[in-house]
User: Fold these one by one.
Assistant:
Number 1:
Amino acid sequence: MESQAFLSRRVVTPEGPRPAAVLVEGERIRAVVQREDVPTNALKRDFGDHALLPGLVDSHVHINEPGRTDWEGFHTATRAAAAGGYTMLVDMPLNCVPATTNVAALQAKRQAAQGQCRVDWATWGGVVPDNPGDIEALAAAGVRGFKCFLVPSGVDEFSMIREADLREALPHVARTGLPLLVHAELPGAVNAATERLGGADWRRYSTYLQSRPDEAELAAIRLMLALCSQYGFRLHIVHLATALALEDLRAARASGLPVSVETCPHYLHLEAETIADGATLCKCAPPIRDRANREQLWHGLRDGVIDLVATDHSPCPPPMKRLEKGSFDRAWGGITSLSLALPIMWTEAQQRGFTLTDIAQWMSQEPARLAGCDPHKGKIAAGYDADFVVFDAEAELTVTTDRLHHRHPVSPYMGEKLRGVVKETYLRGTPVFAEGTFPGEASGREFRK
Ligand SMILES: [Zn+2]
């Protein structure tokens, strides 16, 4: 077996960054040792002052294949991931056709992924009104957990679920021991707000923001916390956008409920005040709220109420963004950021006194834990997969189309100056991204325990 040593003056271990050598045997980390203790026969890769982080894990991605490969697909999503320092993606069960709501659909996804992936992947299964009988079979077949929507999802083949149907599904979910990821907005508050807006101008970002108020998120989260305490399943709130829910979430966690929380780079970087009217590239649901709310989300990360940061990478063909008309009501909601999430997060985090250890925790360790990939993904430690990002934390980059590697290179971040550049990405000991190129074969595979 080939033995390699990855050296850096900033190896980001769970205990913090330090000068070290990571010894790799085949696809796994054998040990983290002092730099002088590298065996002479090991192939040495010395990254100097560039940080060596664990490969990032994105627990919220819409790959859209099979069925909507013209929006995105395994080839392009995993290429964008490798360029962004990700070594594993967990795919959402919707926007692909068929939606991943039964075992046959899961097999179709596996078929579609064959030979296309530059990084490892896994998938969530869907919980919809008519599939309580498929939940435990999906778990046995290898999904990492489940996802449901409490509001319309945006695609017809993946239905939202109401409380009564959810109560049918939850005992099955609880029996699997896997987490249920919830898009937490309730339609009542969204519909009422939209009605109040009457004939408002939908080119204005403020119209869209008012149409999806904080209360829609808050009410959904309260409902899910109550169901969590009743049914005892693992609850995960995806893409938290309102800081108003932090208090309830903090209290729920303090009381011992098995709840975890995610937010996204766009909620931590962008702000409603500076989103231009017509800028539908910034449309996502729940919406990006104001600056004060953003700062509260950062506090949520600081005090641990928010566990992790996932991209919610959700691309579409550019015409669906309705850029000429700029109409927020008709544009597809979804922001793409697989290639940029790490620099976006580092730009914001280092200004607030956070370290690369925090970044590794939010973007690798915790998403890996959510997806049940511990002790294989998420850390630089003995026994884990040799997945690494080589990161120049001091360099700056300007976002240009050649830095985006997903299918349609449009982005709300175009032209921005960001801090930190992904130099190389290694998947199980092998380079999959190096200085703008993608060496080697597509060696990514499904993560199965
Ligand atoms: Zn999503």
Number 2:
Amino acid sequence: MKTKIKGATVVLETGCITGDIIIEDSLIAAINPTDDIAVDCEIDATGQIVLPGFIDPHTHMSLQQSEKFRAADDFYSGTVAAALGGTTAIIDHIAFSPAGSPLMTSIERYHQLATDAVIDYGFHGVIQRVDDDIITELKDIIKNKGVSSFKAYSTYGFPVNDQDLLRLLAAVKEVDGVLTVHCENDGITRYYNEIFAKEGKTAAHHYPQTRPNLAEAETVGRFIDWAGHLGDAPAYIVHTSARQSLQRVVQNRQQGQKNIFVETCTQYLVLDESVYQQSDEQAARFIMAPPLRTKDDQAALWQALFDGTVQTVGTDHCPFMLAEKKLGEADYRNAPGGIAGVQERGLMMYTEAVVKRNMPLVDFANVMSTNAAKIFKCYPKKGTIKVGSDADLVILNPNQTFEFKREVLKSNCDYSPYEGYTAKASIEKVFSKGELIVDQNKFVGKRGAGSFLHR
Ligand SMILES: [Zn+2]
């Protein structure tokens, strides 16, 4: 089966061209071929933009957050929503297994959970404890099991201590993997949580004060310092939100440190702490860690995205139903943490970055797709428009608008933090491995068509 996409603006890594793409079966077969190739299907995309399918490096599908709460999206509904937003691959942060489990326990469980996915998916492994067996297993998984990145937490139930952080960094460096860390200082967050509880300040609007910028920046600084100390071990900071964190990254890079990778998320770029000042019911909808920050932090993040300090934009997609979020209204500790966004990211980032702030399309493709593919080792199969790469493509129509209304957002969640937002483009078509899976904002793909992304 051969398909020709004709006459579009095609965003290559080297620049934009106007021309044709030939898809043959699952792959990109030719870009602007000189001779006439006979095809089965021709799509006129004049005036539209073809980009490499977006990669969301940070999602939480089918997440059991505690005994009480399960995220609203499973791998089917979550990847349908992702596809509708132009995303053709996700790398999911998987959940903990019972204490004492080997690392493969969670990974094997997620292989079962993800069989219904409609786009390709990878996993970041997860670290709960560190000992000799875990380090041996970690290296084996990175080398042989297609999971090249792992996540450790500095807070919640399983904070990684300094010695373990060093052991993990040394291990990933040895086998060319990546350590990703949720950076928030456990002591600082505990300190504030305890004081606030004693003073009865548990209403949802107090929540962001329990996780100040310093909590993030301190741990970012420590994480990358240790990585640098070990000879530039690959260190990836997830969901960066604070100006001070970015300053530490810039400082270490200026001293010559390499292999620091920085992710932010859509919510930190487009939402800010003012949502916590509305009502406690509203504030509870935005309980996530780190919390939303000030306009000043937001400006710093945009600057960092434009100057290359930040490499990737994820979503941390982890939605919970309104009734569950509402449990945090009077006491923020009772609500599950996380918000939706896997569908909204593509069009919202196009609008905010390209339309409003003039980000060049090549840079946009980098932060939405190419950089994540390179960092997480699925490039050039993913993340680029090149002959021989998977035909994962999104066609954007920049001449239409698209409003985020309940009926067009396909997450199972019953609210979107971005409802009412009007994007300055729409998703015309999405191809996953050469198959048309979204046509005019409608999902036309197949349950289970996604496969595991061996990275
Ligand atoms: Zn997360």
